[in-house]
Amino acid sequence: QVQLVESGGGLVQPGGSLRLSCAASGHTLDDYAIGWFRQAPGQERELVTCISGGDGTTYYAESVKGRFTISRDNAKNTMYLQMNSLKPEDGAVYYCAADSLAYYHCSGYVLVQNLTYDYWGQGTQVTVSS
Hints:
Elements: E1 3-7, E2 10-12, E3 18-25, E4 33-39, E5 46-51, E6 58-60, E7 68-73, E8 78-83, E9 92-99, H1 108-111, E10 119-120, E11 124-128
C-alpha cells in the first residue's frame, strides 16, 4: 500500500500560481498511475490531470490545459501539480491519488471505466479570490 500526504494549498489571487505536492510513502509511485482530482462545494469530484505508467502519457481536463502541469520526482517519491493563471473556478479541495490497476490508462480508468483510484491523500484546500 502507498500513503499519500498533500501540501501546498492556500489562498491565491486570480492569475496567481500555486504548487501542490504529494509525498508518498510505503511504496514507490513508479508502480502506480498517479493523478490529481478536485472537488468544489456542491459538485462531484473531477479528474484534473494524471500520468500513466510505462510511457508516462498525461491527461489534462480541458478546463486546465495550458495552465496546470503534473509531474513526478521519482527520487523523492513525490508528485506535484503546478497551477498557473488560476481562476476563481479552480477553487476546490484538491486530492492526489494513485492506483496500480490504472497504470496504463490513468484517465480511461476513471472517465471510461468509471472506476476510482485506490489510494488518496487527505486533500488540500485551494481558494482563488481577490
